[in-house]
Amino acid sequence: MGIRVLVADDQAMVRAGFAAVLDAHDGIEVVGQAADGDEAVRLAHELRPDVVVMDVRMPGRNGIEATAALQTPPRSSDYVPKVLMLTTFDIDDYVYAALRAGASGFLLKDALPEDVVAAVRVIAAGDGLLAPSVTRRLIEQVAATPPAPVVEEHRLAGLTEREREVLVQIAQGRTNHEIAEALFIAEQTVKSHVSRILAKLGLRDRVHAVVFAYETGLVRAGR
Question: Which residues does this entry mark as bearing 4-aspartylphosphate (predicted)?
Fold first, then answer.
């Protein structure tokens, strides 16, 4: 089955452009378009896309609020889509707020069409993705944030020593292959560790693992 996508943007031309780019690729089907956050939430529950490509700035309920709403499904449903945020601005507050709301990816609107297509595929597969400039800003902001209260320590305590090592490597931006080489273990073993880390910490993907590692003080800027 292909990847079902919903595109949400208040500008009709932009919305149609992204829809056309995505629909032109094999394995991706745009099942709907929304002009604001409220419509995005309604259509997402109605059409159940795998990925929602969501603009940050929209009238009424904005993209961040809509993303947060999609992370808490109605009692009658357990449906939670992946969200790829798109914006003209790589402003720190937007990046951080979007990720905290549950977004799995963040790209600027000036990204190349093939980059948007690749991002949708990556996110649909269960991984997180950020544009390079956004990644730098995010790490700078999160790294400068004081560690979370001790209440988060019990979540870290549930990790084995090896899982902590892998989490540190993830937070430093390394791929599974690079982690395997650094820790002298098989790449498949790294994948298993990553899956267990995300499950134990209740995190959606590697992007949120990076945020968690910095917020809890497990990794600090310059270390």
Answer: 55
